[in-house]
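Purpose: get a first structural picture of the assembly so the mutagenesis plan has something to point at.
Setup: two entries, given in the order below. No constraints added.
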Amino acid sequence: MSVSTDHKSIQQVDTVTIRFAGDSGDGMQIAGDRFTSVTAQMGNDIATLPDFPAEIRAPAGSLPGVSGFQLHFADHDILTPGDAPNVLVAMNPAALKTNVHDVEAGGAVIVNSDAFTKGNLRKAKYDTDPLSDGSLERYQIFQVPLTTLTVGALQDTELGKKDKERCKNFFALGLMSWMYSRPTQSTIDWISEKFAKRPDLVAANITVFKAGYAFGETTELFTHAYRVKPAKLPEGRYRQITGNLALAYGLVAAAERSGLPLFMSGYPITPASDILHELSKHKNFGVRTLQAEDEIAAVGMALGASFAGNLAVTATSGPGVALKAETIGLAVSVELPLVIVNIQRGGPSTGLPTKTEQSDLLQALFGRNGEAPVPVVAADTPGGCFHAALEAARIAITYRTPVILLSDGYLANGAEPWRIPVPEELPDLTGAVRHATARQEEEPEFLPFARDPDTLARPWAIPGTAGLEHRIGGIEKADETGNISYDPENHHHMTELRKAKVEGVARSIPPLVVDVGPEGGPTPKVLVVGWGSTYGPIKAAVRRCRAEGMAVAQAHLHHLNPMPTNTGDVLASFDRVLVPEMNMGQLRMLLRARYLVDVQGYNRVTGLPFTSIEIANAITREVRAADGLGEPAEPLSTTAPAPVGGMS
Amino acid sequence: MTTTELPQLSRKDFSSDQEVRWCPGCGDYAILATIQGVMPDLGMRREDIVFVSGIGCSSRFPYYMNTYGFHSIHGRAPAIATGISASRSDLKVFVITGDGDGLSIGGNHLIHAMRRNANLTIILFNNQIYGLTKGQYSPTSELGKVTKSTPFGSLDTPFNPVSLALGAEATFVARTMDTERTHLAATIEQAAHHQGTAFVEVYQNCNIFNDGAFDVLKDDPLEQQIRLEHGQPIRFGKDGHRAVVRAPDGGLTIAEVADVGEDAVIVHDIHRPDPSLAFSLSRLAHGPSSPTPMGVFRQVQRAVYGQEVERQIEAEVQRRGPGSLAELLTGKDTWSIA
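Result (structure tokens, whole complex):
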């Protein structure tokens, strides 16, 4: 569809952040998701942040029931879902109240004026109507009777009133599609496919979607539409992907590239369940999935499948990892490959199931009894989850060890454009498998705990292999034979061996790369170190600071245990090191303990990803301190972010 | 499992080189010897057999079997074994557990393994006590049991493992005893040949912490053991003078045949699809202190978990063809940037 309209101008902008907000049942996630797909296909760079309550349907109109979806898209590469929305679509007073404070000054707020009834205002705890009491004067308010217009567009259809009203998310989507010059055909196709079993709903949703688009074109309310040109991303073929989807694909790819059958067992838990859902679809890849009776069973089944020769995986979130801890320790002891995926969420306990956090790092490293070292890998972006999964599988198979793969709620549900990898260019893991298939001629008996001299990995002799029958278990084993041993020196020796094996993984990982800024620029005194999903916000913050003339270096850890061998040298080469984390300072504690570097932290746990502005503020303080302008007055971890302005 | 050209194996071929470390006089020795003796008759290769266990005295069992073995952690053996069985239907997987391991800390895994009907032979050594932790009462100890953790007597009602297995709709449920070598061997062999989850409770004497728990059944087997045989009227005692009959309330009870007549005696049918009658049978004795049914309570056929997993995979490969990684990664909606 042409983006030109007869009587309205089109304004070129380089970046836009839109937030859809409404009741949990208003279909905001669908509207946001569709807008994202169309936007990605137009070649814009995108980053998304779905933000929804744990309750499936909190009371209608209530504040806790608000569900939101934020999309940031641009004509250049972007790193975060956007700090402050330029546009908010609020379907009711509760959605307005919980979201409007994030909107940039002068930003557009489109409200469904039909929903601003006395009852809904009361449910949203508004004493006066914000549309008329002057409280929203820093925004441009557009009052659109979305419900009336939706029902009006469907006056000739047979649907009941409730069903008609439920189509209003497609009116909002149509309106936004006009406002940002998005093509309509792919959404129409999508509706046709999605509701194929209900032709009446296909017709109704398409009618309403078109009506929303036409409303934008014709109403006097909006004077112009916007256009965002495609982004100049690296050459290649792209698709849109979320973190959990990329992670599931990474596991399938690891199975294909290692020649091992994939076995995944899980127990339903937010925000990890989608990995089980996705893998359960791909039976034609030979993928076996099993929904276990509990978290402990899920990891137990995976460990059994590993013993039997599978690439075995279990996926969960922090509370599930807590339950799996004993079995992960068993996997350390019996030295079998196992990938444990932790999609981190707010804790402790049940915490914030649908919100993001990075507070399971120390649990991943140390959450087991005894000396039980486990390699830990963390994903940095939604698409990066694919490569992190492959890397976790590589380490697990090569070193015969459980590996914990950390992602989080933001990466899991967030979407971005993803350059589609070519399978043949992915790491070849067949060499790492090396099953023991027969007894070595020189050994009088099979030694299940003999070791490869390079990796210290033990043989993976799977049941069904004649002559290699052996027993393993969680009791301490004698070196080489694996027989039960309570010998004091042997226990110390085996503990050292397991430690050396995991530390040796460092020899197979790339060094920590430092981005010191543009060539010829000033030499940075401050290094910002991150891990996991803070990659985007930190990089965006570093860009902002550099744009303001500051010299800042950035490094991001993908391997948390062991860390790259040059980590200590990197940290020591800067005057000040800042670690922003969505926890109370877990990586900071590790870096201080391991490398004796006085690392500073920026730590907040709000359930939402960092904005680039709050990190930029923290960096600014560190740069000032490095320049001798004084230490920050109070600990950074207790500092609330300054009121955010628009992101340019 | 392939059954062609199997090597002739003996009991010795199934004994590992590990020194057996149970207390002298433990009932476990007899069970180990019997199972090792049954192995050559199962028609399976040694390398295709896996023994999985949890924690406890009985769970040391895999170390003594010259097969593949996995001595895991407390209560988790059914889960680990399910992972092996669900991914490798060519293997014969045994689970060795005890009353503490299987019914207390691992109770959830045990009932779900049976519900799922994974291809597992689960052998539960019931000595009605915690042995390895030195003598606490277990979930099968009789009410009022005085132990180190219950000096004034235990307050909680015990499980009847056979009732529990029938309640979980296990497809094969049996009970036998350590000292009844012939019965033990026959029961385990039958269980091992069953497709799906077979559950066998073995009464096992712990001569250190709970000696004599099954003496009532051992001292007077004729009057105290109700031997169950498929297709036969359930009679016991000298000349079969006692029998299992319908009680007036619809349940089962024990009566003198002379009083009720032979026609009233229940004929044992292990293949009844409905487990209710088998359950009633399991309720005749609430502990091994009165006439107790021994033998196979139930054997029915139901879809086997690992085989069903394979069936779905084969159907999908048939329908969609083997997966292409390139196609999967590409998906439906793509765009190119030149």
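Chain B is about 30% helix and 20% strand.
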